[in-house]
Amino acid sequence: MSSEGKILVVDDEPNIAEVVRLYLEHSNYESILLPRGQEVLRTIVEEKPSLVLLDIMLPDISGYELCERIRKMEAPFHQTPIIFLTAKGESIDKLRGFNLGVDDYLVKPFDPNELIARIKAVLRRTVQIPAETPNTQNASRKTLEIGNIVIDLDQYRVTVGGKRIDLTPKEIELLHFLTSHPSRVFTREDLLGYVWNFDFTGGTRTVDAHVKNLRKKLGQHDMWNIQTLWGIGYSFEVVQHV
């Protein structure tokens, strides 16, 4: 089985680094562990990791300064995704990190499964989804029309057969994302990353609850449906009538 990519873990706490390494390897990622920051830039150039997990409070250099140095590296290394994994959880700390160009921020103590989900989400956000069908070009459009359903993301308005459907903003965003990529299967973790971004409250149950509400409010239709692939995730399927 091929690796999903290399993850550079920069943390001076051996127990945390080992837990992260085990979960990364279980998720088919290669891990590179560094307890200090001084070797990070060289390692990025030599190993070309897919992502850097970076502690803020390192013994030799602040994670903030290290993040800033990474963002000033020559192309393409300056675009290496960075997730802060740190005990500093105040809003001002997170704001400083995002202003420096960090891609995500997770506070210790953390759920390793959430960390893996966030890594996958960041990596998918930094890699453009390939156009598998002509309809996937709709991803950048604010208004989509498929069969009898119209989704207007500018006005947060959804109509089915000309009748407006009362949906929450997040339900509309989820529906718009799925319909933008017809027939493409997304895991629950995918959808958390794409639709919810940094908000993982409720975990994958949040996705299941929103899909359930969408089906209830939209009803059943011959032209399209939100399909469940058990054990995998969801897709928006357009029915082709002969």
Automatic annotation (TrEMBL):
A single GO molecular function term of this UniProt record: DNA binding
Domain OmpR/PhoB-type, chain residue ranges per copy: 141-238
Asked whether the keyword Manganese is assigned, the reply is no
Q: Which CDD domains match?
A: REC_OmpR, trans_reg_C
Tell me the ranges covered by the Response regulatory domain, including all copies.
Answer: 6-123
Instruction: Give a single Pfam family match.
Output: Trans_reg_C
* PANTHER family according to UniProt: REGULATOR OF RPOS, TWO-COMPONENT RESPONSE REGULATOR ORR33
Name of the protein: DNA-binding response OmpR family regulator
Q: Which organism is it from?
A: Paenibacillus aceris
